[in-house]
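Fold it.
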Amino acid sequence: MTGPTATLCGLLDDLVEAAQASPALSAPLDPGAPRWTAGELRRDTQLLARRLLARGAPGQRVAVLLPNGAEAALLQLAVAAAGMTLVPLNPRLPAEAVARAVRVAEVSELVVGAARADDVTARLDDRSGLRIVRSDGSWESLVAGPDPGDAPLPVVEGSDLAQIQFTSGTSGAPKGVLVTHAAMTATARMFAARVDPGDGPWLNPMPMFHTAGNVLGSAGAMAAGEEHVVMAFTPEATVRLLEGTGAAMLSAAPALLDLCLEELGRRPDTDLSALRVVFTGGQRVSEAQVERVETTFGARMAITWGMTETCGSALLTSPGDPDGPRRTTVGTPLPDTEVRVVDVNGAPVAPGEAGELLVRGPRITRAYLVDVGTVRPALDADGWLHTGDLAQALPDGTHRIVGRASDMIKTGGENVTPEQVETVLAGDPEVREVAVIGVPDDRWGELVVGCLVLAPDASEADVVARLEEHTRAVLAPHERPRRWMVLPELPRTASSKVQRHVLREHAAGE
């Protein structure tokens, strides 16, 4: 789809036409923030867009360094309505990384929260043309000031650049993923249709600087015609708002869901009767965790595989899928998305065999911004995105993610995929999180190391003894962990992916 209807504000227009007075946005943790109806949200979006245009022009790039809340949600829509490009940044980024992103993306305006304003401003080069807008943490400050008038807003097309989202940079300098309006809106519509939680608010504590928050959460709620409830994550607030808002859907990374499960253990009387779907992704989800979540929340899970390059989702389960595929796979491709699993020579592998996952389709990012004015193709000559993830294509059309090619452990001449060992370890009832890594060893090349986060009050000695006995029974000798690390938490990226390189550094230092 192209044209104005394939834009973020086109989604909002559709929502207004369908139900102008229906709730569309709320931020319950923001003091004084209202509950916007669809009509009110479009009004304030257009007001803020005109304020942006009063000090800028269509085509310029606006970076946002803000926590989840009403400001971040409003700015996403307003920047789009102004015909500008949003550069959403992690509010915890080091000042040096912020400065690099601002430089590479040629940002004209930076909106920064009060908590980061001083250190970020001190690190930025004195570049002419860069406006720094300091937020006081109040959405009202965004729309305060003289009346900007009612001049027509620019026409925005689906092919226009909506956002530049920087990767985490775990395998080199962060790259700017170029995301169009059409890609975001198509993903939002497809995602909403497949998860389909029915009527009720979408509770979204996923970061608004990431596709999970600002495509699947924010745009997805608009596409579904439901209220977007945006919040900064804490387990206490998330559980409280699940009950208080009557949310029909919760979006949260697997690690955050585990924290919510612990909180629900302290609040067993929480009313979750309105909740129908729990959506997650960003890392592999064990069948044991799906069982815990569905049993405790009383809702069905939907699990995705995606990247920033795929607007957050390429493969997705449906809450209505049978238990087996829903709990052990990432489902089937979204519409207009092709998927292949290939060997090192690029040839398709047989069903059930592991190979690299390739993705192709109109929503997939075509290029990366790697430096000022310098872009690099993201796709091969045939239009495929090489994801670096290892997957299995199963006979029923679903897919299972089995690891990263770069994370493969080579021990004693055998290959071990971390995820196949993690699946076994995650089945222990006192294991809350698990990651398996390889560390150098003079004799075997690498040793398998199991990294564990345990349930509160669990005995480390008892759990490790139980796991060693269990792995002897179900894993081949080369697959069994030879060392164990018990940690208070696993190091993660902003998108909740486990930072295995940090674990390897930690293990090497022991």
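Residues 4-393 form a domain with the Rossmann fold fold (CATH 3.40.50.12780).
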